[in-house]
Amino acid sequence: MVSIGSTPPFLDGYAGAGATFSSPGPLERPVKTTLVITKQCNLACRLCYGDCNEQAPRAELSMPEWRKAIDDLAANGVIWLYIEGGEPFVREGFVDLLAENARRMFLMVRTNATLIDQSLARRLKEIDVGIVLVDVWGATAQTHDALTGIPGSFGRSVRGIRNLVEAGIETQMLFILNRVNVHELQPYAQLAASLGVRTIGILRLYPLGRVKREWSVLSLSLNEMTRALDGLTAPSSVRVMQSWHPRNANCCWQMSAIDPFGQSIGCAYLREYVDFGNVTQMPFIETWNHPLAKQLRAGHVERSCKPCASTQGSHGGCRSTAYAFHGRFDAPDPFDLELNDGVDLTALPRSR
Fold this sequence. Notes:
Layout: E1 32-36, H1 63-75, E2 80-84, H2 94-101, E3 106-111, H3 118-127, E4 131-135, H4 141-148, H5 153-166, E5 170-176, H6 185-195, E6 199-203, H7 209-213, H8 215-218, H9 222-230, E7 239-242, E8 255-258, H10 284-288, H11 291-298, H12 306-312, H13 319-326
Parallel strand pairs: 1-2, 1-8, 2-3, 3-4, 4-5, 5-6, 6-7
């Protein structure tokens, strides 16, 4: 979920349409790590992948434990942290954690921005947070609030975005495309431009958390998604990133992620499907070298999409979605036009 202009094209699969990808080959260390720093949130989104605010099976990592984990990541060459939740800013001490690590790692934070007032925005600028990505689920309060479950959340998120842009922080807006908000895709791009946001991310649904339980209500067919994307004309000031063919990179080869309880999960979108070990009980690099993690990084899949491979180094697309629909990590990603093979994306297999 990163900007085309702000990040290397091999990170997260958003290279420009004319880009040609050249893989650097197998990595001995991850380039970047996602920290799912909490399951706590001040919203109740229908689009929540983490079942936030549901009773957790155990305590989340404490801030001292997160500090120790980040130290281990830094010692193993990680230079990029992408931090999400839940809502990271509900965690006490989170801003201090950012300040402590900004000098040694590039920091990205994904948030709903409802808690970002002018003072906090200025503090994030002082800390030198690189990019803040804000989840906004529609172009209107009616649509956004219907998806967050909290009246007034749209207005608070928009104010947070204004505060971030005013503070001079690179701010991006993220839109998870679904049946509730697809009609607002064009005005969404225009909203971003009016707020001074230069990059928007149009993202697919992933079969996780609450989304999985509402899949039949929220999901669109591949043809419906394709028509919506093809019909979008972004303002000249706004760059669009997306997670569909031919920009649907399988980023397992360079990614790593840690969930709120310390489990190494490879990617936040794999949180329900893999467990490579707990970083409080073993060195992080041992979890990186877990046999399944190495298999996913190798990119050995049944079929690849040539356009995706040439622009993104993708080998078959997203492994999470492939597993959810086919039950195999080496299966094709059905969100890819060349690899769909007639899979109905509005019907998620119950066994997953």
